[in-house]
Backbone:
């Protein structure tokens, strides 16, 4: 009799464990929890994707603005020659004003005088001198010798020219 009591007690325990395991959260609570988890995961994916796209868009727009600035500012050398000990470079600005930052002669930073319709300026590599749009600029720099390589650096790029003495 004691054996059957133990068996009954054993089966009763198994049924109770089964009851506890089969009991759970109601369908409504389970659906609510699953919905909250899904929405949180979706929000995380959205925020990550938005951040990546925003960073790419920002980098692309900065590249476009830089390219536009380079394209707008243009400076072309029309004539260049050496007279005495002075290199003279005549350049013309395009449809937008040009910011000159430095002049190099034979790849050495030089101090030059710049003459524009607005006046006379010194270009020494320390500041920026603006040439108005659609205007002519004359650079006068001291040189040694009868041949020199002049490079004018501006915000949109650089322009270079060989200068030689006129015989």
Residues:
């Amino acid at each position: 009799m004691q054996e059957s009591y133990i068996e009954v007690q054993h089966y009763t325990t198994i049924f109770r464990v089964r009851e506890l395991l089969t009991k759970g959260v109601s369908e409504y609570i389970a659906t609510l929890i699953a919905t909250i988890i899904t929405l949180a995961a979706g929000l995380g994916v959205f925020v990550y994707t938005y951040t990546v796209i925003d960073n790419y868009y920002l980098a692309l727009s900065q590249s476009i603005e830089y390219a536009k600035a380079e394209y707008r500012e243009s400076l072309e050398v029309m004539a260049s020659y050496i007279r005495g000990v002075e290199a003279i470079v005549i350049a013309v600005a395009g449809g937008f004003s040009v910011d000159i930052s430095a002049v190099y002669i034979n790849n050495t930073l030089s101090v030059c005088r710049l003459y524009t319709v607005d006046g006379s300026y010194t270009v020494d590599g320390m500041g920026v001198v603006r040439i108005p749009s659609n205007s002519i600029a004359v650079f006068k720099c001291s040189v040694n010798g009868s041949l020199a390589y002049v490079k004018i650096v501006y915000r949109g790029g650089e322009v270079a020219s060989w200068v030689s003495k006129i015989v």
User: Anything to note?
Assistant: The longest strand covers residues 75-83. DSSP finds two helices and ten strands in the chain.
